[in-house]
Amino acid sequence: MDLGLSGRTAIVCASSHGLGRACAAELARAGCRVVMNGREAQALDNAAAAIRDETGATIETVAGDIGDAGVQAALVQAAGTTDILVNNNGGPPPRGFRDLDADAIHAGLDANMVTPIRLVQQVIDGMVERRFGRIVCITSSSVKSVTTGLDLSSGARIGLTGFLAGVAREVAGANVTINFLLPGLFATRRIEGVMGFAAKAQGIDVDTAKARGQERIPAKRFGDPAEFGAACAFLCSAQAGYITGQSLLIDGGGYPGVL
After folding, report:
1. pTM reported for the whole predicted model
2. Cystine design at 22: which of 191, 209, 225, 240 (Cβ 3.0–4.6 Å)?
């Protein structure tokens, strides 16, 4: 399917690894010029070079913590005209809620709620004026299904979802959409921390925790980041203009609910 994105410009936050990188790669394949971001300059440059070589797309990079206002400004400036924004950021490490002090709570909220909202504020008016915009926020399956140890991540991402739900309806008439992708367990660096926390809580080794984790998923495996990237690209496509304010759960059937 031609996604109708050739010539569009996309900002993809936290895209040197994992799900962010998969989204950047898929948007590049669809013909986008992509501005990538990551904390580690070398890893970011390596990811950008790999995607550039594979797709032939124009890839630019802005290294630094996406929570830094200067990095945000540099990303928006590098993009020039931002047609697509993929909000992404590393979640706080798994931790029991009793172990969270005020500084940790505020840091988690800033990274996973405040920062993506600030980025939306900086690009959305231009999208409305041009009558095209796609914003995708990568949150977590824990928004819908409680995950022990991810209380701070869940709370911040639920807050982001609720905040932007009304914004999505406000700009829908201008062909600007805001949607949310909720990953379950994917084969990324993040899985090591999650499985390590589970292993410690259950008194087992990490490999056993991984095996049990996969067994509990109806698909019997962890997700492939490429699958996630493809879903992101579709939500950014010209064909997805009638989908907004939605949370798409991608978890191999792990969530047991009907709605």
Report:
1. 0.93
2. 225
* Tens-digit pLDDT string for the chain (259 aa): 899 999 999 999 999 999 999 999 999 999 999 999 999 999 999 999 999 999 999 999 999 999 999 999 999 999 999 999 999 998 777 788 898 999 999 999 999 999 999 999 999 999 999 999 999 999 999 899 877 788 998 999 999 999 999 999 999 999 999 999 999 999 888 777 777 877 888 899 888 888 898 999 999 999 999 999 999 999 999 999 999 999 999 999 999 988 8
In angstroms and rounded to an integer, the radius of gyration of the C-alpha atoms of the chain is 18
Supply φ then ψ for residue 33, to 5 degrees: -85, 130
What is the residue whose two structure tokens read 């819908």? 144
- Domain chopping of the chain, boundaries: 9-186+224-250, 188-222
Cα 185 to Cα 208: distance, rounded to the nearest angstrom? 15
Largest CA distance in the chain: 55
Order of strands, sheet of 176-183, starting from the edge strand that comes earlier in the sequence: 59-63, 33-38, 9-12, 84-87, 133-138, 176-183, 247-250
